[in-house]
Specification:
The chain has 214 residues and is an alpha/beta fold. The chain has 2 domains: 39 residues; 162 residues, Peptidoglycan recognition protein-like (Lysozyme-like). The protein is built from 4 helices and 9 strands. The strands form 3 sheets. A 5-stranded mixed β-sheet has the order 7-6-8-1-9, covered by helices on one side. Strands 2-3 form a two-stranded antiparallel sheet. The protein has a two-stranded antiparallel sheet with strand order 4-5. Helix 3 packs across helix 4. The longest helix is centred in the first third of the chain and has 38 residues. The chain starts with a helix and ends in an 11-residue tail after the last helix.
């Protein structure tokens, strides 16, 4: 009789423990789903530079290289069954090629502090545009290339249209954290001017056809 009671108590404890584990797993899954829903409409875009030369040890610095670097920094995030290390959502090479980082639905790892900033889309331009760190071009071009800037403006414009992002929410990394990124030589005013111009052009009414005078 005593042994039966003891077994029942053990079974009851096991069931309670199992219920706690299942509840915790369900809660984490629910929280992840809510996060994904929120992330589907990112509140803005944050621009970065890689703070590196275009090539290192004979290899190009691209999304794959940054992914390997960020793996060592603990930026890993599992999203829909796949692990992403790279903290940015897009990488723009010096020839203007745009490479995908982690999916937009996956929370970024490109800023620190307030969590909302990692819900922004992170775009990284490969290069070092800081006059202090790359004064004489020892780490490559001291400013973004024209191809990079054209690609950046086009990408930002497309993302703004898709997610309803306003120009006021296009920020530099230095605007949200204490850092020089993306460098003092990054033409932020030019970018905002281009995006504002594009928005005005898109919203302007088309010219009506002229009527012939009778």
């Amino acid at each position: 009789m005593f042994r039966r009671r003891k077994r029942r108590r053990r079974l009851a404890r096991a069931f309670v423990l199992l219920a706690v584990i299942v509840t915790a797993l369900c809660w984490f899954k629910y929280r992840e789903c809510i996060t994904e829903r929120l992330q589907r409409r990112p509140p803005g875009i944050i621009v970065h530079h890689s703070a590196s030369p275009p090539r290192a040890m004979g290899r190009i610095i691209d999304a794959a290289a940054l992914d390997r670097m960020h793996a060592h920094r603990g930026f890993s995030k599992c999203y829909k069954g796949k692990v992403y290390h790279i903290g940015y959502h897009f990488v723009i090479l010096q020839d203007g090629a745009v490479q995908a980082g982690r999916p937009i639905g996956c929370r970024g790892a490109h800023t620190h502090g307030r969590e909302i900033y990692n819900r922004h889309i992170g775009i990284c331009l490969v290069g070092n545009f800081s006059s202090a760190a790359n004064r004489n071009g020892s780490q490559g071009p001291i400013r973004p290339t024209k191809a990079q800037l054209r690609a950046l403006a086009k990408l930002c414009s497309s993302l703004m249209d898709e997610y309803g992002i306003k120009t006021a929410n296009i920020k530099r990394h230095r605007d949200v954290n204490q850092t020089e990124c993306p460098g003092d030589r990054f033409p932020y005013r030019w970018l905002i001017g281009e995006l504002n111009h594009g928005q005005r052009a898109a919203s302007a009414p088309k010219n009506e056809p002229k009527h012939r005078k009778i």
